[in-house]
Amino acid sequence: METKIVEVLQGVGGLVTLPNVFLRINQLVEDPDSSIHDIAKAISQDPSFTLRLLRVANSPFYGFASTIDTVAKATSLIGTSQLRNLALSMSVASSFAGLPNDLVSLDNFWRHSLYCALVARILARRARKCDPEAVFTAGLLHDIGTLILFNRLPEQAKQTLLLVLDQVDDLPVYLAERHIIGFDHAQVGGELAKMWGLPPLLEECITHHHQIDEAKRYPREVALIHLANIIAQMAEIDTLDPEDVSDIDSRAWVMSGIGFDVEVIEAVIREVQEEIVETEKLFFGK
Questions:
Q1: 110-125: buried (b, 16+ CB within 10 Å) or exposed (e) per residue?
Q2: Using CA atoms, how far apart are residues 218 and 200, in angstroms rounded to an integer?
Q3: Among 240, 275, 226, which Cα is nearest to 61's?
Q4: What is the Cα 21 distance to its own chain's centre?
Q5: How far apart are the first and last CA of the chain?
Q6: Is 202:138 a contact under the CB 8 Å cutoff?
Q7: Which of 4, 80, 88, 135 has a Cα at 20 to 30 A from 199?
Q8: Structure confidence at residue 1 as a pLDDT band (50, 70, 90)
Q9: CA distances (Å), 106 to each of 52, 103, 279, in order?
Q10: Mind listing the pLDDT tens digit for each residue in 211-220?
């Protein structure tokens, strides 16, 4: 009998849980009666998270002109929705620490995810039509379903990787997953986002970053994550040749509002390569 996504996600909550501080921030952001003061107070109750937040707020990642020395000031300057995205981004790697697998290096997985997040943020700033911090978080989470599949369905996931390696015509991983498993990592990640109660924008970006034509509510953001995923691959192996990486859906350039430009790709790659090491230290303590 074919495994269903819901079956794969059953019991995941026992291994993958979001920190209480994020859950509280998420709850307060969704509450129209809550205030910035309420969010700052919730953050302050977690000293470890507070220190990490202030470190990120005072880093070049945001580039504020003045020193951010209190949670209240950080909350006010960053904004509530952006703060929720930052809290999720800061929490996600540690949340998956208890979900081991033997098929992929977690360091490599998170490095690609962070590359994708940074590229998405840079592209969003160029497009100037969507929230750079939201797409940063979407980029960081875009492949999260992969870790679920590797942990829950290791044999089928291994068969998927072998199928991709055996194909001469560069079969995309998500199509190989659908062939072997019946669904792909993006669909699993989207369902996990829904289960966690994450914002719809994140859910849609995770679910449809391989098939951008299926995006209904946030097509621009989904297109940005699609582009960021491929450009991140180019940055990781330091190439400007699109033949070296997965294919880009050409419609993504128009949907994202950027427009295809070889010079843009090179500029983004060089910028993200400069940012990656310091950002890894901020978010993952590398």
A1: bbbbbbbbbbbbbbbe
A2: 9
A3: 275
A4: 19
A5: 43
A6: yes
A7: 4
A8: very low
A9: 21, 9, 17
A10: 999 999 999 9
